[in-house]
Amino acid sequence: MEAEEIMGAVEQALSSKERGFVESVDLCINLKNVDLKQPKNRLNLDVTLPNSFREPKIGVFASGEIALKAREAGAEVIDPAELKRMDKKKARMLVKKYDVFAADASLMAQIGRSLGTILGPRGKMPTPIPPGVDPTQILMRLRRTVNIKSKTATIWVSIGRKGMDVRAIAENAAAVIKAVESHLERGWQNIASIYMKTTMGHAVRVV
């Protein structure tokens, strides 16, 4: 499904009355004939959207040059020494504080040992920053990344904010739909319907 096919639904969803806050624009994908009791059928995807619409709080495990550049890019740096002092309570607090993580690749094994059981189930394992790579581009990409999980037959994911350009929202929606469709065993045959709505608006059928 291309962005052009979705723009009508976006315009209709955005026509909802104004609220006292900036509403998000959400996509709802209903699955069919997918046995989610089987772990292999569950989706857990990170999708990089074409257009940014949010400012997630990013925590970066790093020191030295990577830490410096990460701060310059607007992320918060977590001292690797904290990993040695990390208990379950501190780990849970860390997970709640940040929406997404990145880390110096050399720290990934240590992070896995210290935080893997906390970060893994929540889909928050850090994105590795390879040696010699400027983290700026990686952090920019993370700001455009959304996580898609299919715990039930209905998938909800935010794809924009009210006030964004219609095409930008449609392009984000198309990217999510394509990612979900490509990871389903029978593709479109496993999709029952797709809707779009603002936070407090009425659902508009996309397909």
Gist?
The chain has 207 residues and is of the alpha/beta class. It has 6 helices and 10 strands; from the N terminus they run H-E-E-E-H-E-H-E-H-E-H-E-E-H-E-E.
Polypeptide structure, described:
The strands form 3 sheets. The protein has a 4-stranded antiparallel sheet with strand order 8-1-9-10, covered by helices on one side. The chain starts with a helix and ends with a strand. The mean pLDDT is 95. It is α/β, with parallel strands linked by helices. It contains 6 helices and 10 strands, in the order H-E-E-E-H-E-H-E-H-E-H-E-E-H-E-E. Helix 1 (3-14) crosses helix 6. Helix 2 links the parallel strand 3 and strand 4 (76-78). 33% of the residues lie in helices and 25% in strands. It folds into 2 domains: 3-52 and 144-205, 2-Layer Sandwich (Ribulose 1,5 Bisphosphate Carboxylase/Oxygenase); 58-142, Rossmann fold (3-Layer(aba) Sandwich). The protein is globular, with a radius of gyration of 19 Å.
